[in-house]
Fold this protein.
Amino acid sequence: MSTITKRPETSRRRFIDILLGTGLFMWISSIIYPIAKYLVPPEAAILYVNSVEAGTISEFPPSSSKIIRFGRKPVIIARQRNGKFSALAATCTHLDCTVQYKADTEQIWCACHNGLFDLTGKNISGPPPTPLARYIVVVKDDKVIVTLEEMI
Ligand code: FES
């Protein structure tokens, strides 16, 4: 009867092979993982918002404006000289620049290519092809609320 004895050199070599293989795998993973994460970014959470409190009425003196976040979209709230409010999408329909309120002419102006909108959101001059989206402003208990729908 013969017995087979394993030589210690073989098991040492195998151990070194496993160690090097694991190290190589970890090194390649450390390169591939960040590249894959960059190429496939995580999905952004979708925010469904029906109304946003924009502040108190004292924060909106006549002939003033403020840009707020409505979910992920910027909305410009303008208060006219006569005290009326307008709320419109603050992103120009031409090339997505942020618009601003011109108190002297009571219009919404896009500085990028001199686009002009009236306070109903209608595009009145310049390159913007379509009107700005409109929102509804409700003043309730001294609070200015911007909504998608009429509040009761
Ligand atoms: S981006 Fe507003 S006019 Fe061009």
Notes: Residues 5 and 49 are 73 Å apart (CA to CA). The chain has a mean pLDDT of 90.
